[in-house]
Amino acid sequence: MTATTQDQDDQAHDDLAYNVFAKSCPSRGTLEHVTGRWGGLTLGALYEGSLRFNELRRRVDGVSEKMLSQTLHALERDGLVHREAQPTNPPRVDYELTPLGRQVTERLLALIHCVEGAMDDVLAARARYDETRGAL
């Protein structure tokens, strides 16, 4: 990147109303919700369509009921997930991405696919590291 391009990037970043690198910026919390283990997996699972709580829990293998509930509350509060409660007996609750949630998840899925596609290289790098430094 040239100095001019870097200056333009810095200027564009300075023009933003929020700065995730500032500790008091509210965007930091949202970034944490999106990129945390359960948030990222939950958003990715919902990209395929609306799911009920237990369907989502089965899709996001390993998440506890408590963690999924907390994750969904945070994502709903951030405006990324919509919760729809049906007045049936027993109650039916569906979760789906909001338009903002879809926009964020599309970018997140690009990162997920990049990581998945690079796993052979990652595993080879780990093996090289472990050979020279010893397994941790």
From TrEMBL:
Gene3D superfamilies: Winged helix-like DNA-binding domain superfamily/Winged helix DNA-binding domain (1.10.10.10). Transmembrane segments: none annotated. The keyword Electron transport does not apply. Keywords: DNA-binding, Transcription, Transcription regulation. The keyword Kinase does not apply. It comes from the Bacteria. This is HxlR family transcriptional regulator. It comes from Streptomyces filipinensis. The lineage of its organism: Bacteria, Bacillati, Actinomycetota, Actinomycetes, Kitasatosporales.
